[in-house]
């Protein structure tokens, strides 16, 4: 999956492994409708901000993402964009989520972000993300 991107006199390949937890570690990703909506929101974010979501792993209370970004966004900005837009959209589409998440926040403040080089390292991360989720098929990883 090694791919170079071009923009404004730059050639780049920047990938991040991200992990976010739902606030209070609530098991809200048990509903297929919420998972599918989450993936649709990520597709829209990708189109708007030129992110490429290579791999997504969804577990009951957290997600893992392998995402490519452009150099104009810092790692913390990538996280901020993804977390804020997904939270806003999920609350709009599923207002009942606010009952479980008092305080109006969907994601925990923390999370994980790591850079990923292509080659063996990227394949190890992809396989790790693929193995996220419960044993039931609907929560297993899906590739974008």
Provide a descriptive summary of the structure in words.
The protein has a single domain, classed as Transposase IS200-like (Alpha-Beta Plaits). It has helices at about 30-50, 75-95, 95-100, 120-130; strands spanning about 5, 10, 15-20, 50-60, 60-70, 110-115, 140-144. It is of the alpha+beta class. A hairpin with a 3-residue loop joins β4 (about 50-60) and β5. The model is unreliable at about 135-140 (pLDDT under 50). The strands form two sheets. The chain has a five-stranded antiparallel beta sheet, with helices on both faces. Strands 1-2 form a two-stranded antiparallel sheet. The protein has four helices and seven strands, in the order βββαββααβαβ.
CATH architecture descriptor name: 2-Layer Sandwich
Task: Assign a percent range to the helix content.
Answer: 25-40%
CATH C-level label:
Alpha Beta
- Superfamily (CATH H level) name: Transposase IS200-like
Shape: globular
Distance between the termini: 13 Å
- Approximately what portion of the residues adopt beta-strand conformation? 15-25%
How many DSSP helices?
4
Unreliable stretches (pLDDT < 50, length at least 5) are 135-142
Please state the CA-atom Rg, rounded to the nearest Å: 15 Å
Biggest β-sheet: count, sense, barrel?
5 strands, antiparallel
The counted number of beta strands is: 7
Structural class: alpha+beta
What would the CATH topology be?
Alpha-Beta Plaits
Give, in spatial order, the strands making up the sheet with the most strands. 6-3-5-4-7
Provide mean pLDDT, rounded.
85
Task: Output the helix-strand order.
Answer: EEEHEEHHEHE
